[in-house]
Design a protein that fits this description.
The complex is a heterodimer of chains A (109) and B (108). With 109 residues, chain A is of the alpha+beta class. Chain A has three helices and three strands; from the N terminus they run αββαβα. Helix content of chain A is 28%, strand content 18%. The longest helix of chain A is centred in the first third of the chain and has 14 residues. With 108 residues, chain B is α+β, with helices and mostly antiparallel strands. Chain B starts with a helix and ends with a helix. The chains are: A alpha+beta (109), B alpha+beta (108).
Chain lengths: 109, 108
């Protein structure tokens, strides 16, 4: 596991006390071997209860703030335990990059 | 007009506005393409701004308090990025949301 993976794990664990935390480093799918640029993060936490989804995303972005400078893309799935239970067909596929040679390699985000 | 004022005007003037990388016909990012596909499937006209040309990402990121693109704004409010928009779409909630915004435009 990479340093960024561990940093994200630590930050998110401290902030959300997740029932379930799954961080997938998808950077290799984007032709950037060795770089920590693309992540998929699933967090199941009671903290999200009765919080609108956009606010949940803001909470996560705020928590991992510094990391976002070097991460190109992050997919978030943020659920409460009850939502997870109801979410039996958890389809959560990140889109692939387009034209990444012309743009994505220049700057993050 | 400076960039920030221009962003505010764009959001104010366009009830359904997508800030994206590239354009709907030539998206420059898979996340932007995916959201465009969802919007077009909803069959309601939307406006778009390419955040790469000119590069307004830093200003928009700061103004929106949202670090990633694409961003969908409806009636002056940030709905969310790729994950939220696709989630709304898959739940059948995106089309009604866009239709409400579109209808409010035509009644004025």
């Amino acid at each position: 596991m990479t340093p960024m993976y561990h940093k994200l794990t630590d930050l998110l664990t401290q902030a959300f006390h997740p029932t379930y935390l799954h961080i997938v480093n998808e950077s290799h799918l984007h032709q950037k071997p060795g770089h920590d640029t693309h992540f998929k993060i699933i967090i199941v936490s009671l903290i999200f209860k009765e919080i609108p989804e956009i606010q949940r995303h803001r909470m996560v972005y705020s928590t991992i703030g510094d990391c976002m400078d070097s991460i190109h893309a992050v997919s978030l799935k943020l659920l409460t335990p009850n939502e997870w239970r109801d979410h039996e067909t958890l389809s959560f596929k990140s889109p692939s990059c387009q034209h990444q040679q012309s743009t994505d390699n220049k700057q993050p985000l | 007009m400076d960039i920030l004022e221009n962003i505010k005007k764009q959001i104010k003037d366009n009830p359904i506005l997508l800030y994206m990388k590239g354009s709907p016909d030539i998206p420059q990012c898979g996340f932007s393409k995916s959201v465009v596909d969802a919007l077009i499937t909803c069959n309601i006209p939307f406006s778009f701004v390419d955040v790469l040309h000119p590069d307004i990402r830093a200003d928009l990121r700061h103004y929106a308090n949202w670090p990633t693109f694409p961003q969908l704004w409806v009636k002056g409010e940030l709905i969310g990025g790729h994950d939220i928009v696709i989630d709304l779409f898959s739940k059948g909630e995106l089309q009604p949301l866009l239709k409400t915004a579109s209808d409010s435009l035509t009644t004025h």
